[in-house]
Amino acid sequence: MVIANDALARVRSLGGGVARRAGRRARAGRRGDGRVRARGDDFPSFFPPEVRELTEPAAIEMAKRCEMVTVRVPGRAVAIETSCVRDEGPDGSSAPPFVLLHGFDSSCLEYRRLLPKLATRAETWAIDLLGWGFTDAGDGGVGDYSPEAKRAHLYAFWKENVKRPMVLCGASLGGAAAIDFATNHPEAVEKLVLIDAQGFIEGLGPMGALPRPIAKVGVNVLRTVPLRSAANQLAYYDKATYATDDALRVGRLHTFAPQWCDATLSFMKSGGFKVRNSIPKVPVETLVVWGRDDNILEPSYADKFMSELPNARMVWVENCGHVAHLEQPDFLCETLFDFVGSAKETERVTA
């Protein structure tokens, strides 16, 4: 679900069978590089059975390409099984790798329309952040799904897999995660892309202080069809085309994963991302992308980013809501490659 924290209040009133990991390596097959992938045309075994209800070809293809990578985070006894999709891109590409971060309570399937387009010209990764999507620590569990834990996990993933400075793209709350990462690990980030990003809303507000039993009720509401449907309607400009039943199925698929509830509760307890004071300290050139008709994070936030980021460009996406990577992937792809190929100083560009 690509919905920011401040939008939860708008839809909360409307909403209010899982595949276990035992034996999954034997069923899916572990390759020599330690990755778990699907065999043939089947889905990877770490997906819940509900994955077979998907009908959108792009979603089905993305799910079948999803793989588990074992990531070892320094200081943690348990290795983290990390779900992601990687495309190596064309041979000889000079473009830096793209790494795509999804929004709040979502998964890498969010990039099902953009990743294949980027991958025609560059190595591209879409990764499930720790505690969301299908990333988990296996039977041992992690326990800590805070912003700091998410950052440490992403850094370990980058060191073990990407291994060179990347174009880090974050959508919605993934934008806050990207800001947090770039300011703490500038050596890993060549450029930053913020897609309708959260940055000026600090943490989770009173949600972080709720007693666990009450918080658990709230988390379970996030899975419900009424709330997901409301979020679906908010996310898009062209609702008739994109706010479909299948988009709803994709958006709630990860909520059937065994770790989802506990991981979301842990994140809530941590207080969430607080990057407001980090925005002026972002050390790399940044592209701010905003849907002109975003009904989740109003477009005025784009101007705030432009006034505080030290080196930024901006592109408005017309006829687009909160999710340009889903609603306008062709335009966004060209915009990203224009940005990667540019060496311009801070300026404002209108699409």
UniProtKB/TrEMBL annotation:
Transmembrane segments: none annotated. It holds the Pfam family Abhydrolase_6. One of its GO terms (molecular function) is hydrolase activity. The lineage of its organism: Eukaryota, Viridiplantae, Chlorophyta, Mamiellophyceae, Mamiellales. This is Alpha/Beta hydrolase protein. Residues 98-334 form the AB hydrolase-1 domain. SUPFAM superfamilies: alpha/beta-Hydrolases. Keywords: Hydrolase.
